[in-house]
Amino acid sequence: MDFTVAICTYNGAERLPEVLDQLLHQVGTEDIGWEVLVVDNNSNDDTAAVVARYAANWRQNSQLRYVFEAKQGAAYARYRAVQEARSSDLIGFLDDDNLPADNWVGEAYRFGCDRPQVGAYGGIIHAKLDEPPPPYFEQIKGYLTIYNRGSTAFHYKRSDKPRRIPAAPGSVIRKQAWQDAIPPPEKLLIPGRDEKTMAAGEDAEIMFYIQNSKWEVWHNPKLEIWHHIRPNRLEQAYLLRLARGYGLSNHLTRVARFYRWQRPFLPFLIPFFTLRDGFKLLTYYRQNKDFLSNDFVQACEFQSQLGRFYSPFPKFYKIFVKN
Questions:
Q1: pLDDT of residue 198
Q2: How many domains does the chain have?
């Protein structure tokens, strides 16, 4: 098997058909042995039945398989995908709301073949909306993982300032790079999204680990997907929580950027991080306090900075939210 498409899903029975239909129509895969692996992350809906229906009529030059992962969390689902993948080399990850371009499999496979030193790569993520976007969409789309980093392939170097990595949706990871760089899920800093605080970052943690290793991380502009964003994810209350969760993810993803030998020294830097982030938060509030109630973009940025300030102290923040 040359290539595995891994779809990690939780209660995705309504979303999966759209993704599987796109994979049914892939072109340029005649010389590729590839499979689709659906990892059901402890769903309680009809996900298994949906996959079974598609498997009964799947395309002849590919395979569709289903596995169940009972441990909740994206990290556990992705780890299971790597374990179960029959591909000897390349694994492309899709969420259950990621719609790949018709040539996605072919482009993902060929890019990896041409660059054996590359351990992970991502591409362009467009938005697929069910209704006209709100006027502030362009300014907040990054919170919804909508990215376009240009039409030229490039290397995400660890030394770049600012340091960057590709977004997770539609990314490809070489199996050997995963095995070399990624610890078991129980040893990861971020096992998955915290539904209470909306803090996440497990995908960034994995990319930083690979970037810290001997493997290269790249941008492949020919790798395109459409992130299907349902209307409820454009509601202002949801976006404000998402922006704050984005900030709350900051400290743990910051830790993941460092080499393991450096991490024991990081607790001594927390007062510095707190003072710096607190100064930025206070400055932003003083400059924009008169606009936060009627400028939604600035309100999102304030929530993100507030989350960043609290991010080294997640237990304290949970008490704050509860009360």
A1: 86
A2: 2
